[in-house]
Every structure is written in C-alpha cells, then in structure tokens.
Amino acid sequence: MDLTRHLTRTIAGLALLPLLAAGCAGDDIDRGGGGTYGQGEGSSPDASEHDDGGTADAQAKLADVKEEFEPYSDGAAAVTYDEDAVPAGAQVELAVSSEGADGDADDQDGGDGDDQDGGDGDDQDGGDGGTEFSLRVVGLMPDRDYGAHMHTGACGEKPGDSGPHYQDEKDPEQPSTDPKYANDDNEVWLDFTTDSDGNADSDADVDWAPRPGEMKSLVIHDEHTKTGEGEAGSAGDRLACVNVKL
C-alpha cells in the first residue's frame, strides 16, 4: 500500500509540472507583452489626444476666411478695386487665432488685483491673451510690395467704406497718423511682398484681443506701411478688401 501511495503521488506531481511551467511562462508574457502593448497601442492615442487638446486650449480659432477676389457686388466677400494689382480670381486666406493660454498663464503669474482694478475694456473683452493673424494671398501681381491692415468697417462699393484701421487704443484724433497710435503694436499690420508667382504669406501677433464686432475687414493697400510722424499707418490707395467676422 505504501508503495502504491508513493507511486500515485509521484505521478500526480509529475503531471503538475507542465501546468506550473505554463503558468509561469504565461505570467511573464502577460507582464512583458502587456507593458509593451500598453505603450504602443494605449498610450500613443492618449498622447495624441492630449496634444490636440492642448493646442485647442492654447489657440482658439476666431476667424478663418478663404475667398476669391471679385469686383464689387452685393454680398461679395472679397472685393478688388484695382484688378491690375489684385486680379479677379486671386485668392486670399486669413486665419485669426486667440492665444488665450498665454493670457491664462499671465493671470496665474500675476493674478493680483491689477486685472480687476486696472483692467481696461480690452481685458474685459479677453485682452489678457494675445491674437495671431496669418495671411496668405495667391495670384496677385508678382514681385510687388503691398500694405495690409485690419479695418473697422465692412467692405463696400467704395474703397473708403471699410473705415479706419482697427486700433486697440483708439487715437482721439482721426485720421490717425501719430506713431503713438498708428503702429504695429496698437494696430494689425500684415504688409507683404509677392514672389514671382504673385503669392505671399504674412503674420502678425499682438498682445491684445479684438473687441467683438469692431474689426470687420482686411484691406490690401498699394504700398508698405509708413511709420514716420504725420504719415504713420498710411499705405497708399486701397486696392482690395475682405470681409472678416469676429
């Protein structure tokens, strides 16, 4: 009987060895392979979503205009007043983005009573963050200088219908030609020079946000913007206008 029990136990023990070995190997695969899989399959999508979310938080799109210039008509979104300099069919793109995350950081760093007590109308309108303007034109006159500014009025039948330049701090004297007010910190200047194909890109960054409903158009001018006393902000004739809703 003792011999029979011994043989039975030995056989049972030998039968368990493959199962134990498989179990140990399975644990190693799950831990090693599972860790790698988690990084390759699980972590990457999360990281991408986080990056996209961070970008969206940091830079909210305020306007995105893509139009073709045409002679004035009711409802025209992009108007050319000079088809030699800005031909009908030429294209314009303007993106306006809020850099609100920078403003949030500023508030956290200096979040004292200054914003509440000393904040002007611009801060109340979101001026605690900056604004980025990105312009692209395609098909204008090649190798030519142009001026470009954001204006307060919508495009109309006449070039002057778009009103004066938008200013963060308004010059009490109009038309504004004082460099104190007519400058690329207080206004949005997007001057550019086209290449041999008539294309160009231009960017401008300001540390304030436009007041809602007061910046209504982009105007393309005949020459680069002047900066001297008594002529600051002037850039020659208005060649074209693009409606922008902010």
From TrEMBL:
- The signal peptide here is none
Bias (Acidic residues) = 101-126
Which PROSITE patterns does the entry link to? Answer: PROKAR_LIPOPROTEIN
- Tell me which family the UniProt entry assigns to this protein: Belongs to the Cu-Zn superoxide dismutase family.
- Renumbered to this chain, region (Disordered) spans 33-59, 97-246
Q: Where are the transmembrane segments?
A: none
| Gene3D superfamilies given in the database record | Superoxide dismutase, copper/zinc binding domain
Fetch the SUPFAM superfamilies from UniProt. Cu,Zn superoxide dismutase-like
Its name, as the record gives it, is Superoxide dismutase family protein
Q: Where is the composition biased (Basic and acidic residues)?
A: 219-229
